[in-house]
Amino acid sequence: MMSKNNNIEDMLSQLITMVAAIQVEHKEMKQALEGMHQEQKEMKRAFEGMHQEQKEMKQAFEGILQEQKEMKRVQQEMHHKIDEKETKAEEHHKEILDQLTAFKHDQDFIWEKTVRHEREIHAIKMKLS
At 9, which helix (H) or strand (E)? Predict the structure, then answer.
């Protein structure tokens, strides 16, 4: 009977040791799990921070695109105004050339008339003298 009692005590002792070891393992696993949970929270915060930065970058990019559209619009307006100015300058240049041509014709006409009158005056002077 003593041997049975010793056997039972040994088994109980082993069982207690095993339960203690399991409790230690359980505690270590629980701590590891809590550590992983903490790391997961930190990773989630980091991800949320990156997500926020990505949103801000997207907003900045959209702002840049909007500015680029505005710059293109202004550039098109400037091209349109330059084209209008060039057209007006060409028209003005043509008007000036037309006026100069008319002045040249008038000058030629007046010169011919002056020469004719000078000849006529000279002829009249010759007849009178």
Answer: helix 2-128
